[in-house]
Amino acid sequence: MNEKELIEKLKTLGIHTEEAYFSEAFNRNIGLLTKEEQKRVANATIALPGMGGVGGLHLITLVRTGFTRFHLADFDVFEPVNVNRQFGASVPAFGKPKLEVMKKIALKINPFLEIREFPEGITEENLDDFLENVDIVIDGLDYFSFDMRRILFTRAQEKGAYVITAGPMGFSSAMLIFSPYRGMTFDEYFNIVENMPEEEKHLAYGLGLSPRPTHIRYMDLSKVDLSKKAGPSSAIACQLCAGMACAEALKIVVGRGKVKPVPHYFQFDPYLLKFRKGELYMGNRNPLQRLKMKAVKILLRRRKNVMEETIPVASAVKVKDKKIPSEIMQFLIRSGIQAPSGDNCQPWYFSYNGDTINLFLDRNADTSFFNVHQIASTISCGAVIENIRVAATRFGLATAISYLPDPCDKDLMASLKLFPVDTEADPLFDAIWKRHTNRKFYKKRHFPNFIFRELETTLTGFEGVKLSLITDRKKLKSLAKLIYRVDRIRTEHRPLHEHLVQMIRFTKKEATEKRYGFPIQNLEAGLAGNIFLWLTRPWWVMNLVNKMGLGRMVALHSYQAMVKCSAAGLLTVPEMDRTNFLEGGQALERIWLTLTRYGLAMQPMTAITLFWLRWQMDGEADFLPAHRRLLREVWQDYRKLFPDVDFSKEGHVMLFRMGYAPPITHRTYRKSVQNFLT
C-alpha cells in the first residue's frame, strides 16, 4: 500500500486528518511527554545516515515515538548477511534498496511522515543538503565508514546540529553525544591526526566510543579484523543503541534533562548487567587511553591468526563442463594439504590430469616410531581426500574416489575423478582453512547433545566407522591417567624424543623456511615449557632429566589437558587394512571440520592409539622392557573404557579430546602446492 492507500485505510476507521491520527496513535506517550512536548517532537527534523543495523532501528523507534520529519540516506541493498541485526532484512527484501524498504515500513506506521531521501548515501557533495535545517543527526553509518563519519560529525556541529552516535559493542550499546555548543569536536575527542593509518582510525573510534569496555570479557577478538573491516555484531546491541540514542534525541528536542556531550561517555551491557559512564578527560589523548590503545593493539595481534589461510578468489568459480581448469585443480590440492599429519610432516604428493587428481604416499616424510607400517600417514592421506572432496563442492563438482587403484603402485593411495553436478557447496568448506590443533587447556564445560548428534551424522557414508565417546567426568579422569602413563614413554624413548626435536621449529625463520613440522609456540607449552624443550634437545640431557623424574612434567601436561575438556572420542574402523584407514582418515577429518565449524577445539592424543597399533601388529618387542610392563597394564584399562570396541580386529584411527578453548596464536605452515606435484 502507498501513502494514499494507507490514508484511505485510516478513513475507514474514522480517522480523517493527520492531527486526528497523531492524537490517537501517540496518546500513550502523554504522561511521559506533555502535548506541547509531543508537538515539539513532531516538528523536529532528524537526519539518519544509514538504514542498516542501527539506522533502521533508529528510524522505527523515532517514528513510534512521534518524530515525523526525516532525512534518510543509504545506497546499499539488503542481503542474507544482514538478517542477524538489521530491522528491514528479510527474504522478500533481499536485493532491494535499504532506504526504499525502510521508508515503506515507516510509512505503514505513520503515513503522514515527511521524508527526504538520499539514495546515493551521504557524500561530500550532498552533505550540506542532507544537513539542511536538521536538529539532530543520529549516526547509522557502518562502523568502518570512518572518514565519512568524521566529515559528517564535523559539518553537523558547524551547522548547529547535535550528533548522537550509539555503537553496538558485543551485546551492549556505547553512546556519545556531540554538541554544537560545548564539549569537544570529533577530531579533538578521538585524537585524529593527519596521515593516521586506517586501522588506527578504527581502533581510535572503538576505544573512544567505549573507554571502559565491558564486552571485551566475552567477545572473541580473533573475529575482529580491522584490516578486513570485519567484526561481530548482534540485534540485541542494535536494539539497545536505538533505545539509548532515541531517548537522548527526545531529551534534546524537548529541552528536558541534562545533556552530557563528549568527553562524557556511556555504555550499558545487559549481558553483564553493567552500566558504565564517565568523563574521558582529553579524550583519546588521555595518557591512560593511549596505554589502552597500545594494549589493545597487542591483544588483537595476539588473537588474530596471522598464519591463517585465506580462500583464493578461484573459490567463487563454478565448473559447468568436464574440462576443469588447472587453476582449480591446484586449488583443490591446496585444500587437500590443509589436512593434519603426524607432526605436520605432510607425507603426500600429487599428480593431476584432465579431471582426475592422484594422491600418493610419501614414505620418506615420516619414518618415526609412531608411524608403524605408514598407518599414521595413510590416515593423513584420508584426511587429504576428504578436504579435496569437500572443496570440490564449492565448484559444483562431485568426486568419485578409487582407493588403492593400482596394485603395482603401493604409494598410489587414491584417484579422485571430478565431474560437474548441480549441488550446493558443502557447509564445511570454510572450516578446511580454519581447522587446527588446539593444545591449550579447555574449559570443563559439557557439549550440548546436538553436537554429539552432528558428529554421529558426519559418519554417514563411512560404513563400519565408529565413534566411541566419553563425556563422564570420572571416566575422563581415568583416561587422563592412562594418557599420562603412555606419554611418559614419549620422553623416555630415544627415537621418539629425537624425532620430536627434529620436527620442532625453535625460531620463526626456521619455521617459515622449512614450512613443515611446527613452530615451538604451537605446542602451547608456555615460556617455561619452551625453555625446557630447548634445553632438552640433546638426548643425553633428556635422559638425565628422565632419571631425575622431571621428564614426567610433559606427561603431566597431557593429563591435565585431558581432564580439562568436554569429551574424548575414539574413532575406529572395522578392519585393519589400508582402505579402511583411508576411510577412517576421511571420517576423522569430517569430525574435525564439523567441530571447527562450530568454533570448538580438538587435539589428537595419538600416543595411545599408535602404540596400540604397533603392539597389535608387531608385538611388544619394539618397546623397552619397562615400557612393556607399563603398557600391559594400560591395555587392560584401555579396553574397559571402550567396551563397545572390538580390540581384536578393529583399527584405531585416533583418540582425541574436544571442548571449548581460547584461540591459538600460532598455526603450522604448509609447503606450496608446487612442492607436492610430480
What does this 3D model show about the protein?
By secondary structure, the protein is an alpha/beta fold. It has three domains: about 5-305, NAD(P)-binding Rossmann-like Domain (Rossmann fold); about 315-420, NADH Oxidase (3-Layer(aba) Sandwich); about 435-675, NADH Oxidase (3-Layer(aba) Sandwich). About 40% of the residues lie in helices and about 15% in strands. It contains 24 helices and 18 strands. Strands 3-2-1-4-5-6-7-8 form an eight-stranded mixed sheet, sandwiched between helices. Strands 9-10-12-11 form a four-stranded antiparallel sheet, with helices on one face. A four-stranded antiparallel sheet has the order 13-16-18-17, with helices on both faces. A hairpin with an 8-residue loop joins strand 11 and strand 12 (about 410-420). Residues about 305-310 have low confidence and may be disordered.
Largest sheet report: 8 strands, mixed
Give the overall shape, derived from the CA principal axes: elongated
| Secondary-structure-derived class | alpha/beta
Q: Number of domains in the coordinates?
A: 3
CATH class of the largest domain: Alpha Beta
CATH arch. level architecture of the largest domain: 3-Layer(aba) Sandwich
What is the number of E strands?
A: 18
Q: Point out poorly predicted stretches.
A: 305-309
Overall pLDDT level: 91
Termini, distance in Å? 66 Å
Strand order of the largest sheet: 3-2-1-4-5-6-7-8
The CATH superfamily of the largest domain bears the name NAD(P)-binding Rossmann-like Domain
